[in-house]
Specification:
alpha/beta, 7-stranded mixed sheet, 6 helices
Length: about 270
């Protein structure tokens, strides 16, 4: 199975962002990727701390998802993309949501970001509502895709829960903020999640402006299959079930686990 990672900088213009997704997706259509992964917040950027995301949020049947559904049908591929979803009952905040659209344009699944980025001087919870603590997986062409979003990378228990549910690919749309050592954290954590769960990690990041870029597909041994720097573009790589099986035979850490729950003394 081939997977394409789209990398671009979301603008405060939904139509422009949809056009960017359409252009990049059509550029690689000849390679027939089974899955197209767009970054977190592909619909609209986070903006400044004072900017409201509730004002730009849309329902799951809104124009952003409908346009992506048309594109999925046109290219006969699965599309994963990040958006801000209207949160009923909270007029001031939205959900940070991943939508998964099938080749027929139908909504296969959604994942609302669990871990909100209240770190490095930013408070995502002021603008967003956290999702439920339920792992979300999607089956595509014989593979199980587990969904994470950006800051979720710093919480290995979520990736492990997805692997425990059978994920052999972790899909990570992101808008990973720039900053001292942040790019190093990104590349280290993406590779770590692949190595410790003996699975592929397909991480599509925004680039330019506030985000780091460096989208990459990493294999179950932590080897970078394909990657991008800080430029707008698409990286396409192959995911092989045989590679996962081979690595899990050589490195059967998932079978050797002794502790399913880590207990701490923290209140």
């Amino acid at each position: 199975m081939h997977i394409a990672l789209l990398q671009f900088a979301a603008a405060p213009d939904k139509d422009a962002n949809l056009q960017a997704i359409q252009r990049l997706a059509r550029d690689v259509a000849v390679q027939r990727p089974a899955v197209l992964v767009c970054p977190e917040a592909s619909m609209f950027p986070f903006g400044s701390p004072d900017d409201s995301l509730a004002d730009v949020a849309e329902p799951l049947d809104g124009p952003f998802v409908r346009t992506l559904a048309d594109l999925a049908r046109e290219l006969e591929t699965v599309i994963v993309a990040g958006m801000f979803e209207t949160a009923e009952g909270d007029a001031d905040r939205a959900y940070n949501t991943l939508v998964v659209l099938g080749p027929d344009g139908k909504l296969l699944s959604t994942y609302r970001k669990i871990h909100l980025y209240d770190a490095f001087g930013y408070r995502e919870s002021d603008k967003l509502v956290a999702g439920d603590n339920d792992p979300v997986l999607v089956d595509v062409d014989g593979h199980r895709l587990g969904l994470l979003t950006c800051y979720d990378l710093r919480f290995p228990e979520l990736a492990r829960a997805l692997a425990g549910e059978g994920a052999d690919v972790l899909v990570v749309p992101a808008a990973w903020m720039r900053g001292p050592l942040k790019e190093d954290h990104w590349t280290t954590l993406v590779r770590a999640r692949a190595i410790e769960n003996t699975c592929y990690v397909a991480a599509a990041d925004q680039c330019g402006g506030a985000s780091s870029g460096c989208s990459m597909l990493v294999d179950p041994m932590g080897v970078v299959v394909t990657s991008l720097g800080d430029q707008v573009g698409v990286a396409v790589g192959e995911i092989r079930a045989e590679r996962v099986a081979e690595v899990r035979t050589r490195n059967p850490t998932l079978k050797h686990r002794r502790f399913a729950v880590v207990k701490t003394n923290n209140p």
